[in-house]
Amino acid sequence: MNELSLSKAYRFLEPGPVVLVTTAYKGNTNIMTMSYYMIIQDGSEDGSVPLIGCSIGPWDHSFTALCTTGECVIAVPTVDLASKVVEIGNCSGDDVDKFDAFGLTPVSAQKVKSPLVAECLANLECRVSDNSLVDKYNLFILEVVKAWTDPERKERRTIHHNGDGTFVVDGRTINLKRKMVKWPTYV
Fold first, then answer.
1. What is the pTM of this model?
2. DSSP state for residue 95 in the 8-state scheme
């Protein structure tokens, strides 16, 4: 084993696909790219609600909108949008109307004012459930209040950031459902 810089440790724990976060504030919408999030509670057990923890800091244009409105949408893009996802993450909503600049379609959500992204595989409408860790860690706890998916979407492979500018694309699925005896709610 070789020692690894602590600043690179997260690269081995990236939890899931890169997502887009939309916000709406003062008549303006924004999209940001995010890969720092975690599932806190999946909502599959005893009627609990899905909770997601995500890190959005004051350096992000979306921070003020999320703090003020308490709402956002987490949209899950697929590999065909990978280049746009990276470009969205490399510019600021202070300077760019990202929906327009990247040819994405905002769709009205049902329970929040932030828009869904029509081109994405899934969209999760969220409200801030707990902001007690924002000042210290820039960590928002979001409650998913409505979820959408596009069953007609042919491309379903998501992208995962390695933390160094490279990405992994979902590949072959391995079916181990019959071995999930302890966690049948996940099958």
1. 0.90
2. T
The CATH homologous superfamily of the domain defined by 15-186 = Electron Transport, Fmn-binding Protein; Chain A (2.30.110.10)
Domain ranges in the chain are 15-186
Half-sphere exposure of 169 (CA within 13 A, CB side): 11
pLDDT in tens, 47-67: 788 999 999 999 999 999 999
Who's near 81: CB < 8 A, 6+ residues apart? 119, 120
User: Kind of pairing, strands 19-25 and 71-76?
Assistant: antiparallel
- How is residue 157 annotated by DSSP? -
Cα 186 to its chain centre, rounded Å, is: 21
Q: Residue 176: helix, strand or coil by DSSP?
A: coil
Cβ count near 75 (within 10 Å): 26
Residue 112 reports pLDDT greater than 70: yes
